[in-house]
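User: Can you fold this complex?
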Amino acid sequence: MKNIEKIAFQFPATLVAALRLQANEKTRGKLLAGGTDLMVQWASGVPTPERVTSLWNLPEISAIRVLADHVEIGAGVTHAFLVDCQPLRTHVPALVTAAGTVGAKQIQARGTLGGNVANASPAGDTAPALLVTDGTVVLASQAGEREVSLSQFWTGYRQIAARPDEIIVAFRLPKRGKARERFRKIGTRRAQAISKVMAASRIRVEKGVIVSAAIALGSVAPTPVRLTQVEQFLAGKKLTPALIAEAEKLAQTTVQPIADIRSTAEYRRWASGRLVRDALEHL
Amino acid sequence: MSNVTRTWKLNGKSVTVRAPAGRRLLDVLRDDLGLTGSKESCGEGECGACTVLVDDEPMVSCLIPVGQLPNGTEILTIEGIARKAAGRVIQQAYIECGAVQCGFCIPGMVVSSYALLQRNPKPSTRAIRDALAGNLCRCTGYAKIIQAVKLAATRLAKRTR
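Assistant: Here's the predicted assembly.
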């Protein structure tokens, strides 16, 4: 792969060094973590950048912290590491399930959460699971840190709200508390498949009544999306078979998926409703 | 272009390579070091034919720029696994179960099988399927490969008892 060999690679040993490189236009490089998306794109002929700044193995962005009401996951944490992290299974289970559906073991060992989010594919597996937490992305630059809500982070097809000098360093995700979470991905096969549709949910029911509902879908729009209309419809209502049927229908009418190589618009619309039903039937 | 010099523990031995930082680990293994056991099939991380162990984790060597592997990284390829007792048990099980047809996917299959059995000596069928899900085979239909991993697990359990 001669085109990749021509890239000038930079391997900062610390986050501070990486931020310094990214602050200056002359030293700024395309950010590369585990390479499971970018290396594939470059191998397939997508033009390569002149410079790359590698974030692989940066210690400051590779930790998981479990705090009182939220978890903080470093952007450099791999999917394999997420899958094996017991506390995350308790507090953000949909994210752990989602990480386990990325590619297969070999890809999970290299792909990172920050990379999956920065790649900003509407089919990014972890995106719906992150969205339902109402969490934030922590961005760092030489000017300091700032937090952006995940719901505002994907601004368009493959676009994110990070400035060129910023690096995603972590995700702050409120714990699920008494809510239940679920993640389902529909693809051609269980491993190595890019999704046709997927759904994550975080729903809290008390005494048969839905107290709060967060539902997100992937692969049905240019960005991962929250189904706010469905969520608002569900909030405060008694969980009954009739309500589930209505929510399924509402989901099918609110999504505007496209047809592409992986699926048709009709199937995606139908499956979106079924996934909402699935989430409500498993509370 | 930026060249890097890296010293790794490759198949138990210290090896120093000098290559463009973006050169794929697969090319360094096959073309620079002559370790042609790792195969290239898809070149985009889908098929697993180029799977190697990097610090004990199975990874596809076609997606790793060598610059990202720091000094001291431990790499185990099919050539290294072939010299290990457990590797030979897995190889024999694959032969006896008829798990090999054209054979092109087999080095990657064996590396993933080895990684699984190191971590989980008594894997369920589900665990075997999960561990091998990133290794595609166009010939066998997988059933005999899964049988082979089970047979290898049984034999390895007896040896360690």
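DSSP finds twelve helices and 14 strands in chain A. The two ends of chain A are 49 Å apart (CA to CA).
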